[in-house]
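Task card 7
Instruction: Convert sequence to C-alpha cells.
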Amino acid sequence: MDFKFRPISVEEANEIEDWHYEGKFEDLYMTPYFISADKGGPIKGPGGCDGFVALYEGKVAGLFEYTVDAGAGVLVIGLALSPAFVGKGAGADFVRQGIAFGLANYDDKLDVIELEVNQNNKPAIRVYEKVGFSKIRCMENEVVMRLKV
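Output:
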C-alpha cells in the first residue's frame, strides 16, 4: 500500500475523532487540534506535535504525529491506522512509510524513533516489532518502544 501524507485539517481531525476501535483501546485524543485551530494558529496535536493524515486512494487512512527532541536526537511518533484498515496487513507499510516521511521532514540529526503503545494492544506491538522497534520500558499500561535509525 502506498500512503500519501499531508498536514491534518480540522475536517480530517473530525473524521478521525469518529474512529472507534473494538476492545479495550481508547479513542483518539483529537481535542488539541480543535483548540489550536480555534486560536487561529497552526493546527497542533497533543503536546504541540505536528499532525499529518495518511491518505490511501484519496481517503483518510491514518494519522501520524511527530515531535522532535533534537537535543536528544529523538523523533517521537504517535500513530493510528483507520479501523477500516486494521487487521488487513497494512500496518507495517503504514508505519514504515510514516517513519520515512518523518525522517525526510525532520532531518535534525535524528538517531532514534520512539513511541508509546498500550500494553494490551498486542497486534500493534507485533507490527512495531516487525518494523524493528524494541521494547525499552513499561510504565503503567504503556510500553515505550524504540527504533534506531
